[in-house]
């Protein structure tokens, strides 16, 4: 009679990503944030935070930045009735585009990046 191996623990941590995979996912989280706001950063943070320190740092930074930009978008929309909101919205679009590209390049080069102008919701 053969013995079956014991079932695997479903709660054990996932395998670590290779350095190249960490760089790839970190880069993708920053780039996709330009198009889909905080959703890629949130999904990346929830799925990848335990898969390596590099990808955790980048997903945390991207999520904090995208949530800050979401708040800025809301402020811009609310204040657009008094015309200043239009300028706020334009500034937010430019800031989000520029800093996300800078962060993606840093991630692709294997460097850490901390977004300026960011409220730290997650540490």
TrEMBL record:
The chain crosses the membrane at residues 24-48, 60-78, 84-107. It is found in: Membrane. The keyword Endoplasmic reticulum does not apply. It holds the Pfam family MamF_MmsF. Its main location: membrane. Keywords: Membrane, Transmembrane, Transmembrane helix. It is a multi-pass membrane protein. InterPro entries: MamF_MmsF. This is Tic20 family protein.
């Amino acid at each position: 009679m053969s013995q079956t191996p014991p079932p695997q623990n479903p709660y054990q941590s996932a395998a670590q990503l290779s350095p190249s995979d960490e760089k790839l996912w970190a880069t993708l989280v920053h780039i996709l944030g330009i198009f889909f706001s905080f959703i890629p950063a949130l999904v990346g943070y929830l799925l990848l935070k335990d898969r390596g320190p590099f990808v955790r740092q980048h997903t945390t930074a991207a999520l904090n930045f995208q949530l800050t930009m979401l708040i800025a978008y809301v402020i811009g929309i609310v204040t657009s009735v008094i015309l200043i909101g239009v300028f706020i919205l334009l500034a937010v679009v430019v800031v989000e585009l520029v800093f996300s590209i800078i962060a993606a390049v840093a991630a692709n080069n294997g460097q850490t990046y901390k977004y300026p102008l960011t409220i730290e919701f997650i540490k």
